[in-house]
Amino acid sequence: MRTPVPGGRVNVARAWEVLATVPDPEVPVISVVELGIVREVQVDADGAVEVVITPTYSGCPAMFEIEKDVRTALEAAGATAVSVRTVLSPAWTTDWIPESAREKLRAYGIAPPGPAERGGLVSLVRARPPVPCPWCGSTQTTLQSEFGSTACKAIHVCGSCRQPFDEFKAI
Amino acid sequence: MASAHDADDVGIAAGEAKAGDRPVAGPSRGPRLGAPLVEYLLRLGDDRLILGHRLSEWCGHGPILEEDIALSNFALDLIGQAASILRLAGEVEGAGRDEDALAYFRDGVQYRNCLLVEQPRGDFGDTIVRQFLFDAYSVLLWEALLGAPHAGLAAIAAKAIKEDRYHLRHSSEWVVRLGDGTEESHVRVQGSLDRLWRYTGELFEADAIDQGVAGEGIVVDHRALKARWDQLVDEVLDRATLVRPADGPTQRGGRVGRHTEHLGHLLATMQSVARAHPGARW
């Protein structure tokens, strides 16, 4: 715990503003708020801030980093005390990422997630629609690997501009 | 597994403090089981921890880069799930053990994973067939637990099922690819299936622990689960041109701490750093 800033006060609205500036460590073009992992912010009478976060994937190694970044940012903004609580329910879904953030992902070279699949058992005969290339927009793309540089990404290759690109997987 | 912020309660002390008066920590001979919900959660958590560790052995050794990443990714998911489940087990137990204490400071006889997950990784075919058999079971089990009246367990189920669904998709596709691949790949994965089949029966056995948690509303119909698993497995094996092995005698014992020789070696590797430097932090 850092030394509290004397007289420091952060209200709920301010806390959300501050959190909106905390980038996701793996995809720094969007914030932890846009990613949908900040679920709730509360400030008590003494100005202590509680942030409720939820992990993207069960084993996401970035969660500790995110917790630290959240704490640091709020303390720098004058919060007297910051606690971060992790919840699992409701389970995180890429459907929580707003359209504005999807546009940022695309501009960054990551194809944004489609709608998350719901229920049903796995079908072996999949006909997944091709993921449009974030660089040239072509749909002549092929899935190279369902697993990429982080748990949340898959790798595709564009047949038109010949560029490989990441897809933010829908989950 | 724990965050760097909760530096206080990990280590040998946490693991051993209650060993004498908590049945779950049990003496080294004979199965003495603890409270049903704790035991139940240890079974769920240990399956995923041990399988996750087995998969992590592939990191840097995958047959192709994409598969190396995929298997490491699975490992990460499963170890993450295990962390959540074991944390909950520690909370329910109430003896001050967190997920790290449970993972690193229990011996083999105190582990409750099924025998299937502790078998050596073998070749890529062995790893894929085992993964497929487990994934099919795991997805169906989480489905059954989604509506469990225990909020903590239901939340874990809702989270884990999303991950296990794409695990199952991936492992199914590989079973088909290898089974219906070359003559050699076919022969080899048929062999993997034949060798691993004896460990699948244990997944569907219900005992006093299952009856115990049923009292808390956690009810899984093992017969229905097995029937759906059979159907799913048959469908994939059929497509993979593989022959479903005949049901012979089931190898069992993991759920009460009687393990094959392989678990000890795995634990020696997995636990060595934590035991050599108890309480150490990154």
Report a brief summary of the structure.
Chain A has 171 residues and is an alpha/beta fold. Helix content of chain A is 19%, strand content 21%. The termini of chain B are close together.
Describe this structure in words.
- The complex is a heterodimer of chains A (171) and B (282).
- With 171 residues, chain A is α/β, with parallel strands linked by helices.
- Chain A has two domains: 12-86, Fe-S cluster assembly (FSCA) (GMP Synthetase, Chain A, domain 3); 97-168, no CATH class.
- Chain A is built from three helices and seven strands; from the N terminus they run αββαβαββββ.
- Chain A has helices at 12-19, 63-76, 99-108; strands spanning 38-43, 48-53, 81-86, 110-111, 141-145, 153-158, 164-168.
- In chain A, strands 4-7-6-5 form a four-stranded mixed sheet. In chain A, strands 1-2-3 form a three-stranded mixed sheet, covered by helices on one side.
- The longest helix of chain A has 14 residues, at 63-76.
- Chain B has 282 residues and is mainly alpha-helical.
- Chain B has one domain: Up-down Bundle (Ferritin), CATH 1.20.1260.10.
- Chain B contains eleven helices and no strands.
- The termini of chain B are close together.
- The model of chain B is unreliable at 1-30 (pLDDT under 50).
> Total number of β-strand segments of chain B?
0
At CATH level 3, the topology of the largest domain in chain A is: GMP Synthetase, Chain A, domain 3
Could you describe the largest sheet of chain A, including whether it forms a barrel?
4 strands, mixed
Work out the strand percent of chain B: under 5%
Number of domains of chain A: 2
Report the C-alpha radius of gyration of chain A, rounded.
19 Å
- Please give the CATH class of the largest domain in chain A: Alpha Beta
Helix proportion of residues of chain B, in percent?
Answer: 55-70%
CATH structural architecture of the largest domain in chain A: 2-Layer Sandwich
Provide the CATH top-level class of chain B.
Mainly Alpha
- Helices and strands of chain A, in order, run as HEEHEHEEEE
Q: Please state the CA-atom Rg of chain B, rounded to the nearest Å.
A: 18 Å
Shape summary of chain A: elongated
CATH H level, superfamily name of chain B: Ferritin, core subunit, four-helix bundle
Q: Helix amount of chain A, in percent? A: 10-25%
